[in-house]
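Appendix B. One record, verbatim.
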Amino acid sequence: MLNLRKRECSHEDLFPTGNGWLGRYADLALADQTGLQIVAETFTIPRSLSADKAIAVSFSSSTLSSYAFQTDPQYPAGRESQVGLFSANNSSMFPAGSLLDTISRDGIDALRSADEIAKAIDGYSSTVAYPSGNSLADAFKVVVEIVSGVPEANLLYLLLSDFDTHAQQADRHRSLLSEFGDAVKAFYDDLSVHGLADNVVMMQWSEFGRRPEENGSAGTDHGAASSIFVIGNPVTGGLYGDEPSLAPGALDPVGNPRFTLDFRSVYATVLDRWLNFDSRLVLGGEFPALDFLA
């Protein structure tokens, strides 16, 4: 995912139940702010953004054109009056904290965010050519459209699926990594065109890793340890953490490589040094920061 406050890209949930780490951050830092703060280009809100108070806008980039207040297209002249009636009904005063109060506020927020996204997309232009047939690149383009027109956009979450390969993995994995790399390159170039490259940090993760031993289908099975990419102008490049040993005696009892870096230190670094927020309030403990962000 991405966050853009000083802006960033995201991770999966920290705890097996309850809210995600970004949802916890959003509840504490963003819930009382106005405007389009959180966007997830997914069909459902990801667990990492699960929150009690903060509201994320969720849509698929392929269905973005339908993210709007829907009125009868056969009667376009009636749209303005219908939008006005909706706004008036949802602007009524209801008891604070009541269900009607929550529904009315959410309705107004949804209408406002749809308008903000539509205006941002209409005002977007770029000389960057995004790779065709690349769903992640399409999603990244929407991110630039939003952040170039909606300055308060803070957290943006994208998804690249189909990594759950167990057979004939080499070609598929190579293709997916190429898709990822091409999409990130176009996104970075577009951020640069719009003068935003210094304001965005991308953070990539997967909910599962891979075991090193090949299975009987020229693939590998789910594992525990994995890697994280953090990308952007503000990032000090390099490898952080020791390379795990693949020696048979160094693996855990079920064949996983043993991780050498606690992923919560990555979260803590992003929270403390990029979002300027006390990571202890989100993570429930103190984890040493890393040097990939100043």
